[in-house]
Design brief:
The complex is a heterodimer. By secondary structure, chain A is an alpha+beta fold. Chain A is built from 24 helices and 50 strands. Among the domains of chain A are: 113 residues, 2Fe-2S iron-sulphur cluster binding domain, sarcosine oxidase, alpha subunit, N-terminal domain (Ubiquitin-like (UB roll)), CATH 3.10.20.440; 203 residues, FAD/NAD(P)-binding domain, CATH 3.50.50.60; 125 residues, FAD/NAD(P)-binding domain; 104 residues, Beta Barrel (Elongation Factor Tu (Ef-tu), domain 3), CATH 2.40.30. The longest helix of chain A is centred in the middle third of the chain and has 20 residues. By secondary structure, chain B is mainly β. Chain B has two domains: 103 residues, 2-Layer Sandwich (Gyrase A, domain 2), CATH 3.30.1360.120; 74 residues, 2-Layer Sandwich (Alpha-Beta Plaits), CATH 3.30.70. Chain B is built from three helices and 14 strands. In chain B, strands 1-14-2-10-13-12-11 form a seven-stranded mixed β-sheet, with helices on one face. A five-stranded antiparallel β-sheet of chain B has the order 6-7-8-3-9, with helices on one face. The radius of gyration of chain B is 17 Å and the shape is elongated. In chain B, 47% of the residues are buried. The chains are: A alpha+beta, B mainly beta.
Chain lengths: 998, 195
């Protein structure tokens, strides 16, 4: 296809490199440096999609981030991405894109029937219509709306691209590389500050690329290029293009999305597609410029209606004419600049100026060029469906309320300019209290809350000379504050055309008898009539109006619509705009991919895991793993086709009859040293610790200040002032923090050091009636008898030359020992235990068997210590000292905690001795009682007792002490089970604890 | 052999990532370090002992934020007020510690087996650190250290050199595998050599 709208002698594209691409299946050509939008416009394609609600034809409205509706589905390197703005997507060889929100095609869209029914689809239609009948929501309305809505389809394939994060610090972060950004960056960098300059577009310079200005005897473009070249060479400056600073958070932390490969056909292997920067800046300079404001008139969404500045950018940057019969509709001088560019490139524009007789340098220039100008004229409506064919225009009265005779003017595009809206998103996100500037009819940054300064057009300064002067000054002053250097860069001389004031007019009244849609929000199909309805229905807050009408929502975030919306509300409400206020500017300023937000934290990087030194052995021996917090632990060791139930039962049975070994490295270990170590333990545990002999361990329970059990475990006295504390796996980090907190803040007088040694020691629990025989063989030099190493005893020795610690403690309720060696020797220890243990029929056992063993012994664990129970509930009252003080003691005297019918841990056995009781089941007296059936308690843990070969559970039951022998029901609504049960002692096996002491 | 270091079964030697066409100086070098003596030294709050008079392996215990005392074999990292992490290739330093730092004044804890240690060397070293750790590495100089997190794992980072950059990163041993994957994955963009 020929590029009928491409000019030969203008633009910044690389005409030496031709690029082919496809849009809606048709092949076109563009050039390196084009955007998808500019390339399509060069090929005369204006129809790019359909609107969100009414499915009206949509074209291009802006030329960059301001674009509300030129959104496409992109295909690149066998992957697809929705919600891509054609005005931002750079062209690359092989690019493919399709229209969104249309079926079967953008030219013939069935959904366009909505446009015919628009009278029935006003604001609030969805809220009112889809309320009834209620049953329709899930089956009819939601599926239909989901199918109809959206701006593209997210891929369901795995995204193979890489995304990176980066944390960076700087003295000054400068968002935007227009004149203010370049000037402030240059001044600050020359003064020694560490500067990051971010530009969202591929080219630096902003409006300098399209403005007819002279800076220090150079064109704006030349000046920008020279400044950028110099900045890039400076070691204290990071210059980034294709990088959007999209969020401003507390403590001057900003987030920037850098697109590294989106403009390439394929991302280089191992390189990221995008990088998300977390930047902490001492000072932030916002030079994000301004966005041209639309004028509102009938059918102002027709393809071919676009911002005047966008038309100029397509012309000067891409060498593309957006039309050959342009109509410029303006209320200020900016429209004249576009008209002059058209004229200079051989196209005759017509200017409609809402002002009566404005006088300025640029208007004079337009007159000299014989450009036809109609003052006090407006566009009443655009004519044409898929492309502007003509415009209805009329003279407007001085009070802007009356239209004259409507005339028709042939045109193929309407370039609108309703003056400029400063881009204050970042400033507002920073907490800046914005103020309304009546001179420019827009909000500008006010009082800064953080170290933020807004410059140039973003601050409502629209002359280049003033912008450069202030920006050079700010760059210097802010850098001086940080670096204490005093190298000042002076502002260059500037020549620019002077403008006159704009007209505050923004919305063309409807001619009598006409019902044209006059759109405010082009992305969400919100028209003037929608806002009028919202106000009629009683919505007053601008936030409510926004949500009722969807004005300013979604990916566009009201870039071109917010201010006109505010103007309309203020007009109807007879208020001034600042009284109406503006909606909250929330990050992100532009859409950011989920990939960039997630970064590398996918797959195995999604969360770190912790593994014991014996993990490789477990893997080689068919361990089936389970996540225990972030630890990965063997759940059971599978033999053949064993299920979890079969395998864990086998392992538990072997512990009860022979000997088993379990990896207990994950248990928290805390080394406690210091002259006041015993005193610390005495204060944090409920029982007494001052007289624990050296070489002995003791079981202890810690409470929170509210009396709830926090954790339990054993602590061993290694030497006079040295203790080894163990915690549950889950609570290890919390307990260390708990101890640190008390030592640093509550008891600073105690001389104690606590440090985690969980990683220092690999641990193996050897449990079962044959464990002593095994221990003796492993450690022939020790006396492993009950006298030599009694229950709760401790000794240090060596395991085949490796230093080892032995603790005689038991979680399984069997005769058991825990052996610790330094972690590098963990695997060696494990292999030795397995090797020597063969004689005693040793088998490794995992967490499932471990759970079975502790449940049938009535040993409490995490499911009983669930943040709701006190020592009494867990039959631990014997461990609560009446004499000494400890954390949580006073709370135990609370009325509810000393109630006679207080809940207590009990054993629960199904009457039929066959049916397993689901964990979480409710214990009730009457299975047939009406709902809500009074709950007496719940099942905390369940297992298959290998001792008695029947199901057994632990429960927490109200008045549990007096309920032994009672018959109740365990009800599980989730599993739809009601099981008759009997309440028994929680110590189902070896109630006297003889085995552990044997 | 009874001893197996934290990354023994994970660390792989060779060239990885975007290494083609790059010379040795452009590549990052990643290695596992092991067999160090690592001792946490803490002076008790009420101790009146003057640390200025104490030398361990001829190095003093500096109470200066992020600072390191070091010689060819031993590095004493500031870990907090009156809190240090001694890292040494000389195991016998432990005897000297036990001799000079008395139990009444100091808590000495051997944590030699509790860390996985990765060393990264090369001009892009800080770029790797910046990918996962929120610290300001622009200000990390030679012979300084810090405690922070890297992709959710707690780390101690020791800046050994700055020409080219060379760091030792200590993480908890159990995180070793995840940490190794995280670091080497971050290195792929620049190309690295497992040594």
């Amino acid at each position: 296809m020929t590029q009928n709208y491409r000019l030969d002698n203008i633009g910044l594209i690389n005409r030496d490199k031709k690029i082919s691409f496809k849009f809606n299946g048709v092949t076109y050509f563009g050039y390196e440096g084009d955007t998808l939008a500019s390339a399509l416009l060069a090929n005369g394609v204006h129809l790019i999609g359909r609107s969100f609600k009414y499915h009206r034809p949509r074209g291009f409205f802006g030329a960059g981030v301001d674009e509300p509706y030129a959104i496409v589905q992109l295909y690149r390197n066998n992957e697809t991405e929705p919600n891509v703005k054609a005005t931002e997507q750079e062209l690359f060889e092989g690019l493919e894109a399709t229209s969104v929100n249309c079926w079967p095609s953008v030219n013939f869209d069935i959904g366009a029937i909505n446009n015919l029914l628009k009278i029935f689809l006003p604001a609030g239609f969805y809220y009112k219509t889809f309320m009834w009948p209620k049953s329709f929501w899930y089956k009819v309305y939601e599926p239909f709306i989901r199918k109809a809505a959206g701006l593209g389809v997210a891929s369901i394939e795995h995204d193979k691209e890489r995304y990176e994060h980066k944390y960076e610090y700087c003295d000054l972060l400068i968002a935007g590389s227009g004149p203010s950004g370049l000037a402030s960056a240059y001044a600050a960098a020359k003064n020694g500050a560490r500067v990051i300059l971010a530009e969202d577009k591929p080219r630096f310079g902003g409006t300098l690329l399209t403005s007819e200005v002279n800076i220090g005897n150079q064109t704006g473009k030349e000046w920008a290029e020279n400044i950028i070249s110099e900045l890039k060479e400076m070691p204290n400056v990071i210059v980034k293009n294709r990088s959007q600073v999209f969020g401003y958070y507390d403590h001057n932390m900003l987030v920037m999305s850098e697109k590294l490969s989106d403009h390439l056909p394929k991302t280089k292997k191992y390189n990221p597609k995008q990088r998300l920067w977390y930047i902490r800046a001492k000072e932030v300079l916002i030079s994000s410029g301004s966005i041209e404001r639309p004028l509102v008139f009938g059918n102002n969404d027709t393809p071919g209606v676009m911002l005047s500045s966008a038309a100029k950018e397509y012309l000067k940057v891409y060498g593309v004419l957006v039309g050959k019969k342009p109509l410029i509709f303006t209320n200020n001088d900016s429209g004249y600049e576009t008209a002059i560019e058209f004229k200079k490139n051989g196209v005759d524009p017509i200017i409609l100026d809402t002002r009566k007789e404005p006088k300025s340098e640029i208007i004079d220039e337009a007159k000299k060029l014989d450009i036809q100008i109609k003052f006090s004229y407006v566009v009443v409506a655009a004519k044409g469906y898929k492309k502007v064919k003509s415009a209805e225009v009329a003279k407007i009265s001085d009070n802007k309320n009356e239209l004259g005779t409507v005339e028709n003017i042939n045109c193929d595009c309407i370039c609108v300019s309703g003056f400029w809206t400063p881009t204050i998103h970042l400033a507002s996100q920073s907490g800046n209290k914005t103020t309304f500037n009546k001179d420019i009819d827009a909000f500008v940054p006010g009082l800064s809350k953080q170290n933020e300064t807004t410059l140039g057009a973003a601050n409502g300064t629209f002359t280049l000379e003033e912008t450069l002067k202030k920006s050079f000054e700010s760059g210097y002053e802010l850098s001086k504050k940080i670096t204490n250097n005093d190298n000042k860069t002076s502002s260059p001389t500037v020549m620019e055309k002077k403008s006159t004031t704009h007209d505050k007019f923004w919305c063309v009244p409807l001619p009598k008898g006409k019902t044209y849609k006059r759109f405010l929000d082009f992305q969400n199909d919100v028209a003037v009539s929608d806002v009028e309805i919202a106000l009629k229905e009683g919505y007053r807050s601008i936030e409510h109006v926004k949500r009722y009408t969807t004005l300013g929502m979604a990916t566009d975030q009201g870039k071109t619509s917010n201010l006109n919306g505010l103007q309309l509300v203020s007009n109807i409400e007879n208020k001034i705009v600042p009284e109406v206020g503006h909606t909250t500017f929330r990050p992100p300023y532009t859409p950011v991919t989920i990939g960039a937000i997630v970064g590398r934290e996918i797959g195995k990087h999604s969360k770190p895991t912790r593994k014991s030194p014996m993990h490789s052995w477990h893997e080689k021996n068919n361990a089936v793993f389970v996540d225990a917090g972030i630890w990965v632990r063997p759940r059971y060791y599978k033999i053949g086709e064993e299920t979890l139930f079969e395998g864990s039962k086998r392992e538990a049975k072997n512990v009860r009859t022979n000997v088993g070994v379990c990896d207990v490295t994950t248990l928290g270990k805390i080394d406690i040293k210091g002259p006041d170590a015993a005193e610390l333990l005495n204060r944090v545990y409920t029982n007494a610790w001052l007289k624990l002999p050296i070489g002995k361990a003791r079981y202890g329970v810690m409470l929170r200040e509210d009396g709830i059990v926090m954790d339990d475990g054993t602590t061993t006295r290694i030497s006079e002032n040295h203790y080894h504390m163990t915690t549950t796996t889950a609570q290890a980090a919390n307990i260390l923090s708990h101890l640190e907190y008390y030592l640093q803040l509550v008891w600073p007088e105690l001389n104690v050091n606590v440090v985690s040694t969980t990683e220092q020691w690999a641990g193996a629990a050897i449990a079962g009636p044959k464990s002593r025989n095994l221990l003796q063989k492993l450690f022939p030099n020790i006396d492993a008898s009950n006298e030599g190493l009694p229950f709760m005893g401790y000794l240090e020795t060596d395991l085949f030359g490796v230093h080892a610690r032995i603790f005689r403690i038991s979680f399984s309720g069997e005769l058991a020992y825990e052996v610790n060696v330094e972690s590098d020797n963990g695997n060696f220890m494990w292999e030795k235990i397995m090797e020597v243990g063969q004689e005693f029929k040793i088998q490794p056992y995992g967490t499932e068997a471990l759970s079975t063993l502790r449940i049938e012994m009535g040993h409490i664990a995490g499911s009983e210590l669930d943040g709701r129970t006190i020592p009494y509930d867990n039959s631990l009252e014997g461990l609560v000292s009446k004499k000494k003080d400890f954390i949580g003691k006073r709370s135990l005297d609370r009325k509810a905690f000393i109630a006679e019918d207080r809940q207590k841990v009990v054993g629960v056995v199904p009457i039929d001795k066959k049916t397993s009781i689901p964990e979480g089941s409710h214990l009730v007296k009457d299975a047939m009682a009406p709902i809500p059936n009074p709950k007496l308690g719940y099942i905390s843990a369940s297992c298959w007792s290998v001792e008695y070969d029947n199901p057994f559970s632990l429960g927490i039951l109200k008045d549990g002490k007096n309920m032994i022998g009672q018959k109740l029901f365990a009800m599980s609504p989730l599993k739809n089970k009601t099981i008759p049960v009997e309440i028994v002692s929680s110590h189902y096996v070896d109630p006297k604890g003889e085995r552990v002491r044997s | 052999m009874s001893s197996i270091s934290a990354l023994k079964n994970k660390h792989t030697k060779g060239l990885f990532g975007d290494h083609e066409g790059k010379n040795d100086n452009e590549l990052l070098k990643v290695s596992e370090l092991s067999d160090f003596l690592i001792i946490q030294i803490v002076k008790y709050k009420s101790s009146l002992t003057a640390i200025e008079n104490i030398k361990i392996d001829n190095l003093s215990l500096k109470n200066e934020t992020l600072n390191i005392s070091c010689n060819a074999n031993t590095r004493i990292l500031w870990n907090g007020p009156n809190n240090w992490l001694l890292v040494s290739l000389k195991k016998e330093v432990l005897n000297e510690i036990n001799e000079k730092l008395v139990e009444a004044d100091f808590a000495i804890t051997n944590v030699s087996h509790s860390r996985a240690i990765i060393q990264i060397e090369g001009k892009n070293t800080k770029e790797i650190l910046k990918k996962g750790c929120p610290f300001n590495f622009n200000e990390l100089k030679k012979d300084t250290c810090l405690n922070s997190t890297y992709n959710g794992m707690s780390v101690t980072i020791d800046m050994l050199d700055d020409n080219p950059d060379k760091v030792r990163i200590f993480t908890l041993r159990s995180f070793g595998e995840s940490f190794y994957h995280s670091i080497t994955d971050a290195c792929l963009e620049f190309g690295y050599k497992g040594v």
